[in-house]
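Subgroup meeting minutes
Present: P.N., E.W., G.H.
Scribe: E.W.

1. P.N. recapped why we're keeping a running log of single-chain structure predictions: easier to compare across weeks, and new members can see raw inputs and outputs side by side.
2. G.H. added today's entry (134 aa).
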Amino acid sequence: MTENSIFRSIQVLVVEDEAFSLETISKTLQQIGVSQILKAQNGIQALELMEDTENAIDLIISDIEMPEMGGYEFVRHIRYGKVPQYKAIPILMLTGHDTPDNIQKARIHKIDGFIVKPPKAEEFKKYIQIALGL
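Output recorded in log:
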């Protein structure tokens, strides 16, 4: 399987409250070959998508700061089994800057990596490959 066919075969859930960032992230994912993208504007919408979707989600990319339910709270719900089939799903977090606090929270929440905004295609490729064990 080629790298592009691997990316084409995965479904990614992107959780981001800013419409411009959501579109930018989606376009960047499409540049590396990801064609199956689900979108949510906050953790509540994302959990609903995870519960309702018939498509298997392979990876989550989530912003940290969002209204209604932020990124860390969203990840806690996942890791504690709110949607049991996704308890161990790979999760990448989007951040304005990588801080020691984020690194500590990543360990606590079993987050697979941080991507600094705005994300570059090569960064996405690298982090997705690591998160999915490719």
